[in-house]
Amino acid sequence: MQRSGDFGLYVIDEDDNSTLLVHNISSENIYKQQEDSIISWSEPKHSAQLALSFQETAGCTFVWNQISSMQRILHFDSLHSEAFHNVISELKEIPDVNRSNLPLLLKVVTENCITDQMRLTELILKDATFFQKLMDVFDSCDNVKDVADLHMIFKIVKGIISLNSSQILEIIVGDQLFMKIIGCLEYDPDVPQSQHHQTMLREHAVFKEAIPIKNALVLSKIHQTYRIGFLKDVLTNVVDAATTTNLDSVIDANNATIVTLLKDDIQELFARLRSPSTSDESRNNLVHFLHEFCSLCKSTKKVSVLRELISDGLFDIIAEILKSPDKKLILMGAEILSIVLAQDSLMLLCSYVVRPETPLLGLLVKRMMEDFGDKMESLFVDIIQNVLEFRGAQNVQFSDKQKKMQGMILDTFCEKHLPELVDLIMASCPERPGDTSEGAFVRVGSHRGAKPEVLLHICQLLCSCVQLDPFRTNFLHNNLTEKVLLLTRRKEKPLVAAAVRFVRTLLSVHDDNVQSYIVENNTLKPIIVVFVADGHQDNLLTSAVLELLEHIRKKNAVLVKYVVDTFWDQLAPFEHLPSLQDLKTKYEKCLERKGPKSTTDDQSEMRQDGRALDEEKSPSASCPQMEEAEPHNSDVAAASSTPSTQMEEDEPYNPDVTAASSASPSKRSGGSVDYMDDEDEQEKRKRQRLSSTSEGNKNTPEQGGEAKEPGEL
Length: 713
What we know:
InterPro entries: EVH1_PP4R3, P4R3-like_central_dom, PP4R3-like. Residues 593-713 are annotated as: Disordered. It is a single chain. With 713 residues, the chain is mostly helical. Helices cover 56% and strands 4% of the residues. A three-stranded antiparallel sheet has the order 3-4-5, with no helix packed on it. Strands 1-2 form a two-stranded antiparallel sheet. A hairpin with a 4-residue loop joins β4 and β5.
């Protein structure tokens, strides 16, 4: 700062150069960096809080580093004593650079305090021949393999880089010096053998100019950025955090400049990608270039540039890339699309997808069903889910236009692509459970089956569609649900559990049509079959089935009757599990309270708050009338023909959360979710179980009681 000599922070108006703020840098810990774009601090004298907000991350990082450097200098100045006086302060110039002076030069460069670093930087920059002389000394030492001197040169170069001078860094990464500087860094004294950085650069680092870059500044920044990144990788374990941060800030600033100056050349890239005469090799380079450019837009937060690319036809280009037979290009196209979505461009993509002529959604579905390895199918699933759910949209409350668009996208997906996904499931399931022999799988359409990872991702996507479809109508037609449940024939337990979670998701919101469909089509049969076959094991599949039954017990009276009437003979061996005990107790409680009521009264009661089977705290609680000696289908059809509501307040069901946890069946719920009841209700349940057990013993065939037929009350 003028006259005072203190360090200060000036904020200047870029329009008229007027001073907006003058702040004396403090040595106290008053500064904070927030979200990579804000620097804030408190002014104790004025009791004020101030903040600077930066448009670019690189600018914020640069100013933060400057403030940190000034604070370190102020800290050392506060400890001013004779011990901190250094020979550098007395020097008029750098010692002559030769082999005999290497020890003195090393002392000058490395044994100095922070207050002397600026002076040392000035002396190095003042001597225009310093670096050339140092490289000549390196060559002479390298020729005779003088390891001791080479180790000293390594430390000297490392110390010079650690000065964190942007001017010195620009010289070091220049065309004339960079390879020699890298050669100096091959002789790290802490590494037993010399490295081969120069060989790696010469043989493997190739600059590919996918499109002609006419701006010389852009070319210079590209080369400089690559070299600084390489320098940073070489020095990762030998420099301090301040030097690493400084190198990062220079890279960020260069990338921001590259994106800004290069965006006008992207039109030529699009034209070449659209041209049928472009060779495969050239197309490959162009896609790599586009991927790297979009990645730079993301890292430098250049959202406006990405939106310009979208308006210029980026989505059409991505669709063409996804049609490529080259899997590497396909994945790169999907990654570009993922980058675009991460920058608040979801609304633009959804607007593009609803256009009838665009094939983008279909291409994503097609590629999702293919085997890309390395679990890359999840990338396609995430993009499709983002589009279907409008996930990432900035508006918390959707406008009417957004709701209409979301509905159009879901309708298009369910009409055109949902059957295709279900057909792939069918083609991947054997005709007989557990049969993996050749010929066990039936080809469906053009599908020959898929890997388990792909099928898991399809189930995940189907669960998302179920939650988005309020009426579940898309899953009650063409036996779609039954086709998904063919996965219960697979030997892989995670796939079977995924099919169970799909049904659980289907029941997550109470709907009479779904309820009636499940009963009339005996939809739960394959689930009960696999549970009985696997029920004695504590695993994810058992947990998923028990959690489904627990959900039915708590929220669906009609399905409680259906499950017990139809499957209790198979489930009886597992009655020791708490969730099955509770299911049977609910069922029997209704029988105990049964009275002579008409069918109309029964249906009327079902239309009340739907909590009949959970109202155990009141002895006078009523329950739905259940007819005796009637086939279960006719009873349930009659009950479900009238509107009914949830037995308890519905909570959103997340199949991914359920899949992530596998609870022991010995827990309270017997499933993966622990449903806790009040203590007094638990005591009543114990008494009810004892009562029902004693009554059940009187009617067993061994004791002379009359045995009931399956399904008969």
